[in-house]
Design brief:
CATH class: Mainly Alpha
CATH architecture: Up-down Bundle
Strand order of the largest sheet: 1-2
Order of helices and strands: HHHHHHHHEEHHHHHHHHHHHHHHHH
Number of helices: 24
Domain Cationic amino acid transporter C-terminal: 494-537
Number of domains: 1
Membrane topology: Multi-pass membrane protein
Keywords: Membrane, Transmembrane, Transmembrane helix, Transport
Structural class: mainly alpha
Main location: membrane
Number of strands: 2
Strand content: under 5%
Subcellular location: Membrane
Shape: globular
Distance between the termini: 12 Å
Length: 543
């Protein structure tokens, strides 16, 4: 059984299955190949520049001051390692499925299922938080023009105040409290994802162009109101203060990997997917750094612990009309995030269905719209219904864990892939840099530089209540030691090793309670795998 749990699909088999559209009664062929580099770059920007730049950047700036710009660079480099590894896989395995498919090639079926299940957190469940955030921006936008929805139509059961409950209509004594804007936007975006990639592409391109124009306008105007004295000291709380914003800043980068799910709708995925990922990451990083300098220059960093920092700083300099413009941009930005994630999730389910790990209906392609129609509808229901009733914005950190877990497996998978002759292969290939010396030297150097922080982590004077929160860090240290020794003895490639370790470190910055919930989520996924997927696996039946 252990062998069957780690059975792998060959690259040739995966590509053949994707091309063999109607095999085994599976309607998985004929997807519309319309995406080019500019479209993929736009989709990457659409997924990345969302709620993060309009909200979480304020929290990070509060802790790190102007030095938060360094954190954006560090996080971008971390994501860059993962993006390069994704690009390597995307060029070798030009089919839908993202990290799920890549793990099936390198680690085997069980790992593929686990990562597919974890990606539900990133895409489907994470989108619930985005939809609720969109509703908040939209209601503020309505307020700016003197309109408003009844409070019971723009709230959730678990966040409604007594006044909202009292104002709501009651059915059989139960108050009717709905977040109607969140539900409506999910329905509209799901419809757009359902009717075709061409329509989705045009919408994403338009929204990206609009929000980049607004962000550039905000940056240019904001620099005229910058007080350079606010940039001193550069790191008011030291480097440890900068690092406190790790989780918030990383959340602002989530999404660039979603474009790898559209591989079968690219005109030339082996050439264009790597470029789209890397270009979108570079553009977003430059915009984030400029925004961080504007924010911390316009007002002192200690005033930025607010929900809407961009709007707040322009209110402080008496430009409320720009605040309203930012609200419009925030609505557009979160809509584009919803769209890209609603496109990504059904294509992962489609790939899992092809392999027999999910029922065949999830792999059905609409004969007219050429999209995974059934999976798209299920994704819409999975996001829309909870957003209508519940306040699940707490899944932000949980979403980050699922994403980082996927990044780690993709980086690890690249280490397993056999190297190919670059003179023969005419596509993107991750450059090999021998990590034999660089990794040990880098790890020792970082350990010396952060010796005080590490010493605090290993101080057991606080008892179990303090010690237990450092368990993820202790696991990270153990993994780091193993990877360092393997790099020294087996000459591992530098970029994927750094990708794995940097992503794992970011996971240690997320609270232990989220690790526990994530473990429970994985346990539920494993139960489904053994009750259904294991026995229905096509690879298992062939064996």
């Amino acid at each position: 059984m252990s062998n069957s749990l780690f059975r792998k699909k060959s690259l040739a088999t995966i590509i053949k299955d994707a091309k063999d559209g109607l095999a085994d009664g599976h309607e998985t062929g004929g997807m519309n190949k319309v995406l080019k580099v500019k479209d993929l770059t736009a989709m990457g920007i659409a997924a990345v520049i969302g709620a993060g730049i309009f909200s979480t950047i304020g929290e990070a700036s509060f802790h790190g001051g102007p030095g938060v710009s360094l954190l954006f660079v560090i996080t971008a480099i971390t994501c860059g390692f993962s993006a390069l590894c994704y690009a390597e896989f995307a060029s070798r395995v030009p089919v839908s499925g993202s990290a799920y498919t890549y793990s099936y090639v390198t680690f085997g079926e069980l790992a593929a299922w686990v990562i597919g299940w974890a990606l539900i957190l990133e895409y489907a469940i994470g989108n619930i938080a985005v939809a609720i955030s969109w509703s908040g921006y939209f209601n503020n936008l309505l307020g700016g023009i003197g309109l408003s929805l009844p409070s019971w139509l723009a709230s959730n059961y678990d966040s409604a105040t007594p006044a909202i409950v009292a104002a709501a209509p009651h059915i059989a004594g139960i108050p009717v409290i709905l977040n109607l804007p969140a539900f409506i936007i999910v329905v509209l975006v799901t419809y757009l994802a359902y009717v075709g990639i061409q329509e989705s592409k045009r919408s994403a391109n338009f929204m990206v162009a609009l929000k980049i124009l607004v962000i550039l306008f905000v940056i240019v105007v904001g620099f005229f109101y910058v007080n350079k004295a606010n940039w001193h000291p550069f790191m008011p709380n030291g480097f440890s203060g900068v690092l406190k914003g790790v989780s918030a800043v990383f959340f602002a980068y989530i999404g660039f990997d979603a474009i790898s799910t559209t591989a079968e709708e690219c005109e030339n995925p082996q050439r264009d997917l790597p470029k789209g990922m890397i270009y979108s990451l570079i553009i977003c990083t430059v915009l984030y750094i400029l925004i961080s300098f504007v924010l911390t220059g316009m007002v002192p960093f200690y005033k930025l612990k607010v929900d809407d920092p961009l709007a707040f700083v322009f209110d402080q300099v008496h430009l409320p009309w720009i605040s309203y413009l930012i609200s419009v941009s925030a609505v557009v930005a979160t809509t584009s995030v919803l769209l890209v994630f609603q496109i990504g999730q059904p294509r992962i389910w489609m790939s899992m269905s092809r392999d027999g790990l999910l029922p065949k209906r999830f792999g059905k392609i609409h004969p007219r719209f050429q999209t995974p129609s059934y999976a798209t509808i299920v994704t819409g229901l999975l996001v829309g219904v909870p957003a209508l009733f519940l306040n699940l914005t707490i899944v932000t950190d949980l979403t980050s864990i699922g994403t980082l877990f996927a990044f780690i497996l993709v980086c690890g998978g690249v280490l397993i892939l056999p190297r190919e002759d670059k003179a023969v292969v005419k596509r993107f290939q991750l450059p090999y840099i021998n990590g034999q010396i660089i990794v040990p030297v880098l790890i020792i150097g970082l350990a010396i530089f952060f010796r005080q922080e590490i010493g605090q982590k290993f101080s057991f004077t606080g008892g179990w209540e303090i010690w237990k929160h450092n368990i993820p860090f202790y696991i990270f240290v153990l993994v780091t030691l193993i990877m360092t020794m393997m790099s020294a003895t087996r000459k591992l490639s530098l970029i994927p090793v750094l990708g794995m370790l940097s992503c794992f470190y970011l996971m240690t910055e997320i609270a232990l309670k989220n690790w526990i919930v994530f473990s429970i989520w994985l346990a539920i996924g494993l139960t489904i795998y053994f009750l259904y997927s294991y026995s229905h696996s096509k690879l298992g039946k062939k064996a």
